[in-house]
Structures are given as structure tokens and as C-alpha cells.
Amino acid sequence: IAHIYCKDVVGVVGENFTFPVQIDQKIVETVWTKNKHKVAEWERENIPIYFGPLYNRSVLMKDGSLTIVNLEKDDAGPYEFHYWDSVADHYLNFVLVVLDSLPEPKISCNASDGELVLNCIAYFQESLIYTWKLSKDPQTYPNQELSIPLGSVDATTKATCTIKFSQTERSSEISLSQCLP
């Protein structure tokens, strides 16, 4: 009996990417293929063997999970994970999409209605997680926009916006003195 399952997964150039494999059974042997070409295999007591473009750039664990180190655009494509648990063959299919590295976020700011409004702008194919941090303030603010009442603005404060997607982060910093009218 063959069990088949398919999932789209997303990574970012330069990350270490691990396919989300969760298997409870004991695995006897595994083969990973990309576009039907073998990229990694492991049998019983042997050490894993790697092939092709993932040679020197991947790690296959005993639980079947495959990690690609320093993801490249060319790593994108269909992958199949085939394992045998001494009872049945199982097939997991993944389509890996590799996105360009994150851009550096741009910060805009303007003062209006008694507030200083900071905006963090980054163009990316997927939705990003935004956080703001102000120097001398331990708190982080989870939003693309940050409003500070003008009365409490200290011109020496620096504001940092960080964008995050998957495991990758990029930040930009601005001094609030640049925003004041």
C-alpha cells in the first residue's frame, strides 16, 4: 500500500531550509528525489549519501527530514520523500518555492495631529511580520505603523523597524530627530 501526501513549502534565499517531515514509525530506508533525480538516501545502518546539487549542502536525519543549507533559487521545484517502514511504502510530495532575499525596509515618518507616525515599508511576495523597537524602551511594537504622541518624543531616540519572514530578518533604523518638523 502506498500513502501519498502533498504540500507546498516556502523558503528564502540564504536560509537553511528543513522540509516539515513528521513521522512516528521507525524508518528502515529513505530516498529523497528532486524532479525524479535522487538527491539523498539512507539505508538501515549506513550513513546518508548525497547526490547532485545538494551534495555538500544538505543534511538527512534518521527521522527522514532533509535540510538544505544556504538555500538557492535553483533549489526550487518538486521534491519527493519516499520511505519504507518495513510494512509499507510512503510518499510525501513537496513543492518548494524559493523567494528572493528580504529587501531592506524603508522608514517614512511624518508629524500630524499631535502625533509622530512612523511607517515601515517593504515590498515582498509574502506577508511579513513587522516589529518596531525604540531605543531606551524595552518594549517591541508589533505593527507596520507606529504612532508616538509628539509631547513624548525625544529627538535623540532611534527607531528600528524589523521585518521577518520564515527565519530571515532585515532591519532599518531612523533617528526621530529626522522626523520632527
Give an account of the 3D structure.
It contains no helices and 16 strands. The chain is mainly beta and 181 residues long. It has 2 domains: 6-99, Immunoglobulin-like, CATH 2.60.40; 106-178, C2 domain (Immunoglobulin-like), CATH 2.60.40.150. The strands form 4 sheets. A 6-stranded mixed β-sheet has the order 1-9-8-3-4-5, with no helix packed on it. Strands 13-12-15-16 form a 4-stranded antiparallel β-sheet, with no helix packed on it. It has a 3-stranded antiparallel β-sheet with strand order 2-7-6, with no helix packed on it. The mean pLDDT is 92.
In short:
With 181 residues, the protein is mostly beta strands.
What are its keywords?
single chain; mainly beta; Immunoglobulin-like; six-stranded mixed beta sheet; Ig-like_fold; Ig-like_dom_sf; signal; membrane
Query: What's the story with the biggest beta sheet?
Result: 6 strands, mixed
Low-confidence stretches: none
Q: Whole-number radius of gyration?
A: 23 Å
The CATH architecture of the largest domain can be named as Sandwich
Strand content: over 45%
Mean pLDDT: 92
Count the DSSP helices.
Answer: 0
Strand-and-helix sequence, N→C? EEEEEEEEEEEEEEEE
Instruction: Provide the CATH top-level class of the largest domain.
Output: Mainly Beta
For the record, the count of structural domains works out to 2
The counted number of beta strands is 16
CATH homologous superfamily label of the largest domain:
Immunoglobulins
Helix content: under 10%
Note the quaternary state here: single chain
Distance between the termini: 71 Å
Subcellular location: Membrane
Main location: membrane
Protein name: LFA3 protein
Keywords: Glycoprotein, Membrane, Signal
